[in-house]
What does this fold into?
Amino acid sequence: MAALSRTVSSLSRRPQLQGLQSARQMSSLFGHVEPAPKDPILGVTEAFLADQSPDKVNVGGVRLPLRTPSSIPRSLAAGAYRDDNGKPLVLQCVREAERRIAGNLNMEYLPMGGSITMIEQSLKLAYGEDSEFIKDKKIAAVQALSGTGACRLFADFQKRFLPDSQIYIPTPTWSNHHNIWRDANVPQNKFTYYHPESRGLDFSGLMSDIKNAPDGSFFMLHACAHNPTGVDPTEEQWREISHLFKAKKHFPFFDMAYQGFASGDPERDAKAIRIFLEDGHQIGCAQSYAKNMGLYGQRVGCLSILCDDEKQAVAVKSQLQQLARPMYSNPPVHGALVVSIILNDPELKNLWLQEVKGMADRIIGMRTALKENLEKLGSPLSWEHITNQIGMFCYSGMTPEQVDRLTNEFHIYMTRNGRISMAGVTSGNVGYLANAIHEVTKPK
Ligand code: KET
It folds into this structure.
């Protein structure tokens, strides 16, 4: 009897033991996994949130967790636009689009390639309202998971169909570009872009790197408002770049994450792309509505590739869809509906254009205010670049050590490359920021 009960209890324990054993096996399976290094941009927000000081200022990181903005004292959480009170902004045009969606539209799957209206309207923004390429259906385009997703889908497409190709990426660039092409297994090369001494464009270095790259190379170009430097080529320089690309048969891939944020006018900010189109290039383009519509968390964007003819465009689009299907099947619907409604309605589109200009103008105003404050404090250094650079960021020229002092002594959070997100600077904190920058940069 006792033997029997032992057997029964050991039998009943066995599944538990087996469970434990397999749990142990599981843990040893992943025992070699080390924590990933912190992201140079998103990691800053984590540190910011852990800071208890009421003076803390974030002009570096991006996202805030879901809590009410008012619970974060003097937060300028950046890389994302804030109004002059330091609060996240939902555009009026977006609120109106959401009002129209609420209760009126279904939430079924979008097609694999995403919302047709959103794509049509996105192409008009990038390629021009009356673009012949749109009319001739020469562009393969799919909705993408914002700008990041569009870049990644392109990188995967590049690897699948041109497996021996490489990508040239500017120095410096948005840090995630390196991760994107790395994870798509596309080898990377650098090209010269920024001139640290002048804090402007190294045009001759850029041109010679384009010239020295093997014919037919892939180049990743920031369409406008270069991140992190805020330095864009002039129109004339873009024309020269385009001519050289033509001679070298290079392929330009434009990452356009800030259309409207450079000049305040999305049409003007598409100038570089239009120049390349006039010159008869085949191009690729990643568009994002994160910044210019404030749809950061909605993850809505577009990837397009200009092809030789409609037949090629159909084939390329079908392959892009096939890349998307096993990854995320089809893109999210809400942001796409918002964008479609806004861009499809002339009145709402006008409102959007005014609101984009409003955001860009506020940033331009803050550049002037920051520079003037530094001058008033008697800084002997030149801060001309703050107003010369454009877009969301100011590449301040501060060293990582100076940035560390800003964080440790003044509770100001920004990326260690000295990038200040001007979108997080407000009338209320610009004086505090200028004073702190002056303290850490003044010659001893
Ligand atoms: N391209 C560039 C050049 C860029 O700066 C960003 C975002 C993106 C693409 C992607 O944005 P998306 O949200 O996927 O549409 N940059 C800011 C946010 C981030 O790092 O994710 C930033 O530099 O702060």
The pocket of KET is lined by residues 41, 62, 79, 146-148, 174, 176, 222, 227, 255, 257, 288, 290, 296, 301 (CB under 6 Å). Residues 346-376 form the longest helix (31 residues).
